[in-house]
Amino acid sequence: MQTVKKHLHSVFRKLEVPSRSRLMALAA
Q1: How far apart are CA 19 and CA 4, in angstroms?
Q2: Is the pTM of this model over 0.70?
Q3: Which residues contact 12 (CB under 8 A, 6 or more apart)?
Q4: Contact partners, residue 27, CB within 8 Å, separation at least 6
Q5: Cα 10 from Cα 27, distance rounded (Å)
Q6: Domain tally for the chain?
């Protein structure tokens, strides 16, 4: 799961949008 979290973090940095909050909720 650590790899997924790292990947998500990279995606968030790429997106740099408030939507990452929603993505985080979905990931959770």
Answers
A1: 18
A2: no
A3: 20, 23, 24
A4: 4, 8
A5: 14
A6: 1
